[in-house]
Structure formats: C-alpha cells, structure tokens
Amino acid sequence: MTTLTQRLGLDKLKERVQALFQRDTSVPIRDWSGPTGQPVRLQNFDQPLVWMVVALLALGAVMVYSASVAMPDNPKFTLYKSTHFLTRHFLAIGIAFIAALVVVQLPLTLWEKYAPWIFVATLLGLIAVLIPHVGREVNGARRWIPLGIMNFQPSELAKLAMALYAADYMVRKMEVKENFFRAVFPMAIAVGVVGLLLLAEPDMGAFLVIAAIAMGILFLGGVNGRMFFIITLVLVGAFVLMISTSPWRRERIFAYLDPWDVKYTLGKAYQLSHSLIAFGRGEIFGQGLGSSVEKLHYLPEAHTDFLLAVIGEELGFVGVACVIVAFFWLSRRLFHIGRQAIALDRVFAGLFAQGIGIWMGGQAFINMGVNLGLLPTKGLTLPLMSFGGSAILLNLVALAIVVRVDIENRQMMRGGRA
C-alpha cells in the first residue's frame, strides 16, 4: 500500500492533511460505535457533496414531472394520472434515502469483507433476470425483476458490485499487479462473464459503464500502461466484433452517423433526430419550464434516457451547461475523496470512491453524448435525475458509501480511527 501511495505522489498530501487536522484536545474525538456497539451520530461529512446530490435529485424530479405530465394522452398510458411517474419517482427517492441513511452507518471494512460475495450475488441476479417468468421483458429487453413497489434492475447493482469487487481485488493483488496472468487476466474473466450476461438481456450500455469502472480501478490501482493498453485493445476489438456481427447494432451506428437520412429519420435515428430538434428549439435560455413540444409523444423515453433533451428544450443551453458543470464537480469531488483516502493508506476505500466517480461521470458523459448526437444511442439513464427506481436506489447507496469514506478520512485525520 505504501508503494502505491508513493507511486501516486501522495506522500506530501498525506503530511499536509495530517498537519492540517492535528488533534485538538478541546474537541472530543468520537468513536463510530458506542460502548454497546450501536452506531452514534455521524459528524463532519462532506456537506457540499451531499447538497449537490440533493440539487441534482430535485432538478431531476422537476424535469421528470415536466417530461411525463402529458403521457396519459398516449393510449398506452391512458389509465395513468398525470402525476403517476412523479409519484413513483418520489417513492424511489424516499426508499433510496432511507437505504442511504442505513448504508452510511456501515464501516468500510464490512464492504471490503463482503465485496466478493456481493459480486457473486450480482451474478445470480443477472442470471435470474434471464429466466422466463422471473425477469420482466419490456420492448424486447429482459432487464427487470418485478418486486411490487418497484422493478429491480440487476445491471444497476452490477455497477456497484464491480466497483467494490475491483477495489478489493486490487488490494489483494497489489504485490503481483505487474503480472498479467496473476493480476489482470482473472479480472478480465470476471468482466467478460458480466458482459455476456448483460449482452444476453441485452444491455450494452450497462456493460460499457461496468467495463469502464473495472478498467479505471485497475489503472488507478497501479496496473502498468502496457497491460492497460492491451486490455483497451481487446475491449475495443470485442465491441467492434459485436457491432459487425449484429445487423441491428450496425444499423444503429449508421443512423448515428447520418440521423437526417430519410432511411433512418423515422427508424433507428428517430430518437436522436427529435432529441436534436429539442436542443435546437431550446436555444440559449429555453422555451420555459413545461413548454417542451418534443415531450408530447414525439420524443420516446423523454423521462428516462432523453431527459437531457427536455432540459435543453425547456431550460436551454444555460440549463444544460449547469447540469454538465454539476456532474463534472460531482465526479471531481468523488475522485478527491478517493485520493485523500489513498493518502491515508486506505487503498480499498480510495479506489472504491474513485470507481464511483468513474461510474457517475462516465454514465453521465455517455447519456449526454447520446442526447447531443456525439455517441450512438444507448439505453443509459442520467444518474440521479432520470426516472428509474433501482437506478436512483443504487446511485444513492453508492454515494452514501463514498460519504462514509469521507467521514472515516476525517476521523483519521483528527487522530481517531476509521
């Protein structure tokens, strides 16, 4: 661990933060569990991070309602109320908030201990969703397991599980990280198995995010550049092979390259073309909240995958720029917390926090790229903002664990123990 700290050039940072937070004898240091082992009130957490998450959730709720308010006009949703999706969205946020409050009480050592078992449970979930009468099929994709109050998506759990497992894996393989077959190859097999299960759903978008999380943690964990380059080439080759052997994926790429071609505008490029129209109508300051035309059954999935297009049409360039800056700040903050943990020789906690930064930043980047026509269409939601129960739940759980990392960092820098 010390070698990794030195390699990342964090020795000076460690000295600075420890000097900055020397133990003040006038302020009692709290242990994170009372004499009976019960959790005590948490203090000194990253409040700007929490408020940024709350702001994104609040804006997301407003835009989900705006994007879905007219959906009952569609014969498919004629029995729904105008507030149906907003109510379900608030229910998901409420459940996620309670789960986050519970998760933030759990020490990081517990997550590190059970990381491999969480990964195994995730694999079982990805298998279960493919079983008829267990997984629910929507628009030709089998990605959800009905749980009554919400439809659970195992691929969302897979993102959290991969961040936990990859961080734990790198800690265990730290001594042999320069050996391809002992360090990198087993992780490549794990990612490959998850990828095969996700592509069977199919959910290529989730596979892209999970592969990015795994590769990012390997790189940050100290895998040398040559092996990282080889892994990148293999993954790119695998994606090219999947696209070239799948006619419908190939058509989607062609539609992305020329969305205004008559052959694609009413077909594979229908979503993209209407998304671009929405951004064009928004101009600088937008048409005004609630004034989107594209959400009136022109733009499919306006409240999920293409929520940013509705933001662009109603709030304009200014609204979209604020969302982009917010996600950039959020990702940077998560990386900072991770780097701080590594400076304190807490490698698992640090790599995990940075893995969540890759998840939030990477998925937001892909979603925004798809909405703006910079990337081929993928079924990925905008983290913390798009409608989706299990996505909101796992987003807040992951961020709650990062808040716990920050709390333990601060405890150690004040002379206590994590």
From TrEMBL:
<dbReference type="GO" id="GO:0015648">
    <property type="term" value="F:lipid-linked peptidoglycan transporter activity"/>
</dbReference>
<feature type="transmembrane region" description="Helical">
    <location>
        <begin position="49"/>
        <end position="70"/>
    </location>
</feature>
<dbReference type="GO" id="GO:0032153">
    <property type="term" value="C:cell division site"/>
</dbReference>
<dbReference type="GO" id="GO:0009252">
    <property type="term" value="P:peptidoglycan biosynthetic process"/>
</dbReference>
<comment type="function">
    <text>Peptidoglycan polymerase that is essential for cell division.</text>
</comment>
<keyword id="KW-0472">Membrane</keyword>
<keyword id="KW-1133">Transmembrane helix</keyword>
<keyword id="KW-0961">Cell wall biogenesis/degradation</keyword>
<dbReference type="GO" id="GO:0043093">
    <property type="term" value="P:FtsZ-dependent cytokinesis"/>
</dbReference>
<protein>
    <recommendedName>
        <fullName>Probable peptidoglycan glycosyltransferase FtsW</fullName>
        <ecNumber>2.4.99.28</ecNumber>
    </recommendedName>
</protein>
<dbReference type="GO" id="GO:0005886">
    <property type="term" value="C:plasma membrane"/>
</dbReference>
<dbReference type="GO" id="GO:0008955">
    <property type="term" value="F:peptidoglycan glycosyltransferase activity"/>
</dbReference>
<feature type="transmembrane region" description="Helical">
    <location>
        <begin position="90"/>
        <end position="108"/>
    </location>
</feature>
<dbReference type="InterPro" id="IPR001182">
    <property type="entry name" value="FtsW/RodA"/>
</dbReference>
<dbReference type="GO" id="GO:0071555">
    <property type="term" value="P:cell wall organization"/>
</dbReference>
<feature type="transmembrane region" description="Helical">
    <location>
        <begin position="342"/>
        <end position="362"/>
    </location>
</feature>
<feature type="transmembrane region" description="Helical">
    <location>
        <begin position="228"/>
        <end position="248"/>
    </location>
</feature>
<comment type="pathway">
    <text>Cell wall biogenesis; peptidoglycan biosynthesis.</text>
</comment>
<feature type="transmembrane region" description="Helical">
    <location>
        <begin position="306"/>
        <end position="330"/>
    </location>
</feature>
<feature type="transmembrane region" description="Helical">
    <location>
        <begin position="114"/>
        <end position="134"/>
    </location>
</feature>
<keyword id="KW-1003">Cell membrane</keyword>
<keyword id="KW-0131">Cell cycle</keyword>
<keyword id="KW-0573">Peptidoglycan synthesis</keyword>
<dbReference type="InterPro" id="IPR013437">
    <property type="entry name" value="FtsW"/>
</dbReference>
<dbReference type="GO" id="GO:0008360">
    <property type="term" value="P:regulation of cell shape"/>
</dbReference>
<keyword id="KW-0328">Glycosyltransferase</keyword>
<keyword id="KW-0812">Transmembrane</keyword>
<dbReference type="Pfam" id="PF01098">
    <property type="entry name" value="FTSW_RODA_SPOVE"/>
</dbReference>
<keyword id="KW-0132">Cell division</keyword>
<feature type="transmembrane region" description="Helical">
    <location>
        <begin position="382"/>
        <end position="403"/>
    </location>
</feature>
<feature type="transmembrane region" description="Helical">
    <location>
        <begin position="204"/>
        <end position="221"/>
    </location>
</feature>
<comment type="similarity">
    <text>Belongs to the SEDS family. FtsW subfamily.</text>
</comment>
<keyword id="KW-0133">Cell shape</keyword>
<keyword id="KW-0808">Transferase</keyword>
<keyword id="KW-0997">Cell inner membrane</keyword>
<feature type="transmembrane region" description="Helical">
    <location>
        <begin position="180"/>
        <end position="198"/>
    </location>
</feature>
